[in-house]
Amino acid sequence: MGVLPVPAEVRAILLDIEGTTTPIAFVQETLFPYIKDNVKEYLRTHWEEEECQRDVGLLRKQAQEDSSLDGAVPIPLETGSGEEELEQVIQAVVDNVHWQMSLDRKTTALKQLQGHMWRAAYATGHVKGEIFEDVVPAIRKWREAGMKVYIYSSGSIEAQKLLFGYSTEGDILELFDGHFDTKIGPKVESESYRRIAASIGCATNNILFLTDVPREANAAEEADTHVAVVIRPGNAGLTDDEKSYYSLISSFTELFLPSST
Ligand SMILES: CSCCC(=O)C(=O)COP(=O)(O)O
Ligand SMILES: [Mg+2]
After folding, report:
1. Which atom of ligand 1 is nearest to the CA of 16?
2. Complex ipTM above 0.95?
3. Which residues are CB-neighbours of 105 under 8 A, at least 6 positions away?
4. Strands 255-256 and 248-249
5. Helix (H, G, I), strand (E, B) or coil at 178
6. Measuring CA to CA, which residue among 152, 146, 160, 156 is closest to residue 227?
7. Is the model's pLDDT at 133 over the cut of 80?
């Protein structure tokens, strides 16, 4: 097991979810198939609700922005001309969601709908958020040492709260001081990390960001945020250059805080 000293100026640890706190397999083999299998039924059931209409509006706007992309699926406006038209619009939303998911897109529009759909899956006990076993004990230790702990995931804040609120470790939401999603900006843009620091009320170099994705680590580092790349079973492999450039950990227990005994 390695040891990674945390720089003394770090006051807050910012955590990615998929591939960092949580196995990629849980997201890819449980959460995402739930969306693909249930999106049509969900839209039919919730279509008239304000939240569902907001989600569809966001997806339609995203579809317009995506119109020049290969395979993009437009979502027509409803004119209110009957059941058949409604089915066509719902089918377009379904096809759009499937297309975006086939590319693992991280658009806010897709992530908002997914978060709302998972609500029922978690609340009925159909799904429990999976967390690597080192995560909870390590976060408790960091917090005891005075560290603030935040989540930054492409999954919507609602989806994050469901995953940690209905997790295999129980409701562990109390472990986090706050949550960020793509509404603050994409994880691959350095400006997002500056906005997060401003929102927390610290400098970017007071934050250590843990992620499995080198492009995200690179964006954070550009903003002068400390980073470590997390290696977990099932994560994408790193190139030799990435392995030698980034600080790597394979368990949260490898982080050594200056105040740790
Ligand atoms: C938190 S909900 C499921 C995760 C998800 O939808 C996703 O896109 C994961 O992205 P991350 O930024 O956590 O790697
Ligand atoms: Mg990730």
Report:
1. 13
2. yes
3. none
4. unpaired
5. strand
6. 152
7. yes
